[in-house]
Amino acid sequence: MATEMESDVVIAGGGHVGLSLALALGAAMPSLTVTLVDAAPPEAATRDTRASAIAAAGRRMLMRLGVWDEMKPDAEAITEMVITDSRTGDAVRPVFLTFGGKVEDGQPFAHMVMNASMIGALRRGAEAAGARLVAPQTVRDFTVGASAVTVELGNGDRIRARLLVAADGVRSRLRALAGISTVGWSYGQSGIVVTVAHERPHHGRAIEHFLPGGPFAMLPLPDNRSSLVWTERTETADRLVKGDADVFQYELERRFGHQLGAIHPVGRPRAFPLGLTLARSFVKPRFALCGDAAHGIHPIAGQGLNLGYRDVAALAETIVEAERLGLDIGSLAVLERYQSWRRFDTVEMGATTDILNRLFSNDNPVLRFGRDVGLGLVDRLPALKKMFIGQAAGNGGDLPRLLRGEAI
Amino acid sequence: MSASTTIDRDEVARFSALAGEWWDPKGPMAPLHRLNPVRLGYVKDQACRHFDGPGDGARRDPGDPHALAGLSILDIGCGAGLVSEPLTRMGASVTGIDPSAENIEVARRHAADGGLAVDYRAVTAEQLGETGATWDVVLALEVVEHVPDVDAFVAAAGALIRPGGLLIASTINRTMKALALAIVGAEYVLRWLPRGTHSYDRLVTPSELGAAFRAAGLTRRDETGVVYVPLADRWKLSPDTGVNYMMVAGKPIRPAYQGNS
């Protein structure tokens, strides 16, 4: 029989963004009731062999939320970043730009963290903070009224809430249900994501080769493994992941090189079509988009999840501050604070990664010359380099408290 | 004293026309919606500092969502309840009064929709004074710039505070900067407010408001400026009282010696 429940906040989507929002809200304000609805069964994430880049600001938030220590054994610090520009077959890849990986406080500007470990820690944290997790379950529909939003679940249950947050990913179904359209385009490229094991240690060095098909990033993981984000034209990418394993291995070695000894993939490679998707609006009455549901950007700078964590920190702070002032947390007056806080940053990051990708994913000799000179210049200008590292560490802009490592 | 001495009929009619649009954060009251967090935060912090917590007399924690539990608050010129409703959610028992019956009707319906118990009445401060009732905190937010006689209004408001209670007012200073920003800027350039919302000679300076407090037997306790930060599109507290400001007065437990009383 269908039941009717009450909850202050309902979050749809149990990925990094949804779980960390549930945790942040519960930790800052135990009196807020939070229900998280996720379509995937709870154990699904434990099979994820992929990893994500977490910038220093995101790590400060995870530390503040008390979940960093649990995922730390499965995290690798990026201590150095090397960027090269070359053709796939080039034997020697000239290094144009190197970044030492420390921001001012002596902390690495980013870590690679295994998804399974991060999701597990966030899930346990959210539950310990009092969030109610409903999974596997879908949100079928929702109706916005004057004082509440009624969320209808796949099994017919209903939840009356003051605010519904859609953290259901780049192809957000709730965004479509809310009638929020998106702007953006597909790049005709896909990102092949695969974890590889190699013989020799990577010493925490992240390498990004700008190849004609798109960027090829090698990001360090614990135990002589690396996470690859390998961009190719979509047809090529599909052929590679679905085709013969020997062909994949050959193409992998051609790009990865032999400097770390013999390599082999761990788990199956998967290809994700890449595009830029920006929601025209992040909020409506009693409804907010968070994470990829608000913005899917090109993974060239590894900033997708970090933008998501910035959304979480800003939305949690907006909700908690409004609740402390007795304001209606689902009202547009409150939610617009979140939107104006996040929108500029998102558009800026979306535009930057878009331009970077257009600049680097091609073999035009004039562009190649221009970008090589540009990268060389960045390498020789300490102030500019420091700014890039600061941006990569997520330290730019008007930072929400959690990203500064403070409580809300 | 009759109601007509502190209420200007034209002002009442002007706000009645706006009543239906009060709760639209992008409507004519958008500036009040934006101003609301900083006003509510200041009222909450002042009340938490002044009054012990309910029951055991512990300090009130402004971070507690029910920081105002056990306090009675009168919101004079409550409009459609933009301040009364949040104060109720913070735990206070709120009475909202407004001379416009239409505003009170909008306020009642909105509170009922949200399941909030606010005591709304279409009366003036003077009419309420005849009942002899008093409150822990009396608010006059964006009110004194709309009354014809500030001293008479503050005296009427002061009579509604219980001994040991607080009066908190917010308004616009009468300076050239205020004329430029709050009237020319907000009403004519940015069109935040309908033209004619404020008239320059009705504006009240902090020293005039302070004098009205003293004449009503109240003691000035705190004062702050409220400034708009255009880049962040939000308001914040500031020492600059040149345009918007807020002032707090306390009502002594025993009335001060007034000379001839």
Description:
The complex is a heterodimer of chains A (408) and B (261). Chain A has 408 residues and is an alpha+beta fold. Chain A has a domain at 4-75 and 113-184 and 276-360: FAD/NAD(P)-binding domain (3-Layer(bba) Sandwich), CATH 3.50.50.60. Helix content of chain A is 35%, strand content 31%. Chain A has 11 helices and 19 strands. In chain A, the strands form 3 sheets. In chain A, strands 1, 2, 8, 9, 10, 11, 17 and 18 form an 8-stranded mixed β-sheet that branches. Chain A has an 8-stranded mixed β-sheet with strand order 6-5-13-14-15-12-16-19. A 3-stranded antiparallel β-sheet of chain A has the order 3-7-4. In chain A, helix 1 (16-28) links the parallel strand 1 (4-12) and strand 2 (34-37). In chain A, helix 1 (16-28) packs parallel to helix 4, helix 1 runs parallel beside helix 8 (304-324) and helix 8 (304-324) runs antiparallel to helix 9 (332-360). The longest helix of chain A is centred in the C-terminal third of the chain and has 29 residues, at 332-360. Chain B is α/β, with parallel strands linked by helices. Chain B has a single domain, classed as Vaccinia Virus protein VP39 (Rossmann fold), CATH 3.40.50.150. Helix content of chain B is 34%, strand content 21%. Chain B has helices at residues 9-18, 30-50, 84-89, 101-113, 125-129, 150-158, 176-189, 206-215, and strands at 72-76, 93-97, 119-121, 135-141, 161-172, 219-229, 234-238, 244-250. An 8-stranded mixed β-sheet of chain B has the order 3-2-1-4-5-8-6-7. In chain B, strand 1 (72-76), helix 3 (84-89) and strand 2 (93-97) form a beta-alpha-beta unit. The longest helix of chain B is centred in the first third of the chain and has 21 residues, at 30-50. The mean pLDDT of chain B is 87. Chains A and B meet through helix 8 and helix 9 of A and helix 2 and helix 3 of B.
